[in-house]
Amino acid sequence: MRLVLTGDGLAGLLVPRLAGDPAVDSCRLLEDWGAGVTAPGETLVIVPSRCPTASETGQAAAAAGCWTAGGGGPVILISSAQVNEPSHFHSGLLSENRLRRPKMGNTIARDWLRLEQRFAEVLAEGQSTLTILRPTAVPLPDGQDIFSRLLRGSWATVPPGFNPPLQLLHLDDLAQAILRAACVTREGSFNVAPTSVIPLRQAIRHSGQRRLPLPGFLHRRGGSLERPPLADELAYLSHPWTVSDRSIRHRLRFEPRHSSAETIQWLRRAKSARSRHPPPLASATAASAAEDGYDPFGMDRGYIDRLGRTLFRFLHDRYWRIEWRGLEHVPRQGRAVLVGIHRGLQPWDGVMILHFLARELGRYPRFLIHPALVKHPFLAPYMTQIGGLLACRENGAWVLEREKILGIFPEGIRGAFTRYRDAYRLGNFGRHDFVKMALRHRAPIVPLVTVGSAEIFPILGKIRWRWWQRFSGWPCFPVTPTLSLLPLPSKWHTLILPPLAVHEEFPPQAADDPEIVTRISHQVQTQLQAALDDLRSRRKSIFWGSIFPRDES
User: Smallest Cα–Cα separation from 264: which of 249, 246, 247, 281?
Assistant: First the structure.
């Protein structure tokens, strides 16, 4: 195998790592974009800077065009996973075909996408194959990207109120991914990501720094004026932009050997030695990389348990005095789809379900949530640490494939903003995705209802306010007695109904049958509405009293 690298300083760091591999016959570096001489059997590897400018994009594309015109071999473009725009709409662990293209507001993501598109146009007319590798952040001792700058020095300045999961790729793993792509020669785009993530705060702690939360306008800038806007850089430290490495593992049979935490350890050693080439880490394997223990979406069981001994316990036992029946219907192990109704504006009903099941059964359900709940500082890390996942089919599948409990409120955000006069009347269940997930993944459906949560923030009216809708992500401004600040101490009554074993009655293919899906969804809705009506008819007061007989357990 013969490789030709051209690009910025990162290419110079990759050459000795590639040249030392026994599978490489030769590896040369072109300092000038267009100075290469095409030779049969060579593979061109283009390594742009981590913040490619328009001029660099043109130079790189021109070099690829000359290479192809001269009869050169395959072309490998080292793009970046930053092509995925960080956003509260980012559902996490995105695959290559889930790139959000329209109306990208982040200039960094837009520049990387423009670079890829330009290469695809240039090479479309030639005979060379194009492989695009999208590595996650590759921090370097003297790198000028935001992650290299963040993890060196004594203090790490970050936006306050956010703690997104990061994927930090070791330089050696990037070199091995290039070798694998050159050997296999597959056209298309491939994410290159470590097997584990690390939350931003833990990354800073591992690097031996102190975290300094500062608003964006207080962050200092230096160096080249060609850097992207500071707000666009800080977005990658505020919202998720993690990617899935499933495609490269299956199509190229490649998996990085170092975890994100080990990459920080290597970088810290480089800082201590003041060297661009610190000693390699001890033998690392993909298995050891997966032992860092951080949830890829940010869930923290220790955090849940701490709140379970303090705030959650107080709210559950003292403030709302929640009484339960039907706990025996929740599976003690294995996957399940927990389906309920969401009232009370804020997601306290889901939090109380999480607290109770964690306390009584040691099971931590993962709820699908609306993007508005992870948009704002301080609320975003809270929602992710208690296990919230942005609502999408891929995230639901991720939970069920790991034999966990998936929590869904089928009415969506509309249910939370139901007027109090209609609070106990179920609305439309939308596309019935909860049924499709249960069928595809062979999981029982466990219905659940709560009476009392609608009274903590009874919505008496709604104000359509466009500015508020854009700012909050809510469909309206709700008018409540306490202005949505202090929940009222109503008494809650929660009933878990017997599970529906749809996975035993229907095959997975039934998820594609609209008639079966709709029938199951209506059956669940009917059961939930009947349970709500029964509990309300037995309730004597909003603020006190039990509705479950003592002998009922």
Answer: 281
> Does 243 fall in a domain?
yes
Query: b/e map of 195-217 (b: 16 or more CB within 10 Å)?
Result: bbbbbbbbbbebbebeeeeeeee
Could you tell me if residue 515 is inside a domain?
yes
User: pLDDT: is 1 or 457 the higher one?
Assistant: 457
> What is the structure's pLDDT at 39?
67
Using pLDDT thresholds of 50, 70 and 90, give the confidence band for residue 514: very high
Q: What is the pTM of this model?
A: 0.91
Residues 84 and 14 grouped into a single domain: yes
What Rg do the C-alpha atoms of the chain give, in angstroms? 26
Q: What is the DSSP string of 50-96?
A: SS--HHHHHHHHHHHHHHHHTT---EEEE--GGGS---TT--SSB-G
Distance, in Å, from the CA atom of 184 to the CA atom of 175, rounded to the nearest integer, reads: 15
In the block, which residue shows the tokens 């009903």?
A: 349
- As a whole number of angstroms, the distance between CA 296 and CA 70 comes to 44
Does 361 have pLDDT greater than 90? yes
364-381: burial string, b at 16+ Cβ within 10 Å, e else: bbbbbbbebbbbeeeebb
461-to-418, 456, 457, 466, 470 alpha-carbon distances in Å: 9, 15, 11, 16, 19
CATH code for the domain of 532: 3.40.1130
Rounded (5°) CA angle 221-135-56: 60
Q: Are residues 212 and 345 in the same domain?
A: no
Is 287 a residue whose pLDDT tops 70?
Answer: no
Among 285-294, 315-324, 341-350, the range scoring the smallest mean pLDDT is 285-294
Judge whether 123 and 67 are in contact, CB under 8 Å. no
* Residue found under tokens 């594309």: 61
Identify residue 120 by its one-letter amino acid code.
A
pLDDT, the chain, mean: 90
In a domain, 415, yes or no: yes
Do 305 and 288 belong to one domain?
Answer: no
**Closest C-alpha among 130, 270, 282, 263 to residue 193:** 263
User: Taking the CB of residue 424, how many other CB atoms lie within 10 A of it?
Assistant: 17
Predicted confidence (pLDDT) at residue 301 exceeds the cutoff of 70: yes
pLDDT of residue 289: 39
Query: Residue 115 is inside which H or E element, if any?
Result: helix 107-124
In-domain check, residue 549: no
Q: Cβ distance 475 to 413 under 8 Å?
A: yes
CATH code for the domain of 277: 3.40.50.720
Q: Cα–Cα distance between 483 and 491 in angstroms, integer?
A: 20
Given pLDDT bands bounded at 50, 70 and 90, which one contains residue 291? very low
pLDDT category at 34 given cuts 50, 70, 90 is: low
User: Would you place residue 284 in the very low, low, confident or very high pLDDT band (cuts 50, 70, 90)?
Assistant: very low
254-267 confidence digits (pLDDT tens): 999 999 999 999 99
How many degrees, rounded to 5, is the angle at CA 305 between CA 304 and CA 311?
A: 75
Residue from 493, 480, 494, 482 nearest 540 by CA = 493
